[in-house]
Fold:
Amino acid sequence: MAEKNNLIKTLFDLFLSEDTRLKTEKIILKVALVSFFIHLAIIYLMKFDFLNFSSNSELFNNPISAIYTPFSFILIYEVYLLIYYLPKSFTTYITKQYEIITLIIIRNLFKDLSALELTENWFEIKGDLQFTYDLIASLLLFYLIFLFQKQGKIKLIQEVNIKPFIQKFVDKKKLIAVILVPLFFFMAIYTLVDWTAGISFVSNDLLNLQSINNVFFDKFFTVLILVDVILLLLSFFYTDQFHKIIRNSGFIISTILIRMSFSVDGLISTILIVIAVLFGLAIIKIHNSYEKNELA
Structure:
């Protein structure tokens, strides 16, 4: 048992220590910066006919769309941060889920900016309408996440003294986090290779934008649902309080709604994301009301 605990601690320090987080942040930021200039160079090489392959993709028609690529690497770092915060704070872990889906919408805005049709028929053009929906949704989600973080801090203040048996739950979350790091790494590599192989035979369209949006993140949120269920089941060993069980169950529902948003397009997808975050906010606010009532 001691050897097992030492192995988990060693792997946790290797993957998820503060030093590793800082190193990962620096690497991702450098890669994001380089990728931006590479994407920008490809756009201008195509524009001046130095590259002759044809593409109907919006990602190669306008320099603004080059911002899409570094944002993709920032999203990878956010995935790492989600795992990093899992053992530290459950609400911060959920917050990271909301931040990731919001950044995906922001990333789409940069892509859609390059394809806007500035005409008086704005509300009759599908692409312009989707840009409008995403713009409003990003502002709304930004504010909802702010409110969610405020509620999360209230909970943290109330639970500042961690009971010894809760530490066992934290240790199990560390084990889950250690497993998730290599799992998500191999998932990212596999989906990237699989997607690249799939688009290599697509004629006249270098990139399928819908497939880009769903690459990795649909599978990512599927895994998060399973992780949330495991955390819910483990929590039964440490608490039988109704409001905590409902809180954890509600977060699973919120994650499922986010996952469902990848299965549909347009306005329905955006609405599902907003409802997911609204539901999570309502759950944690009611949970905190229960906590205050118990302290009174």
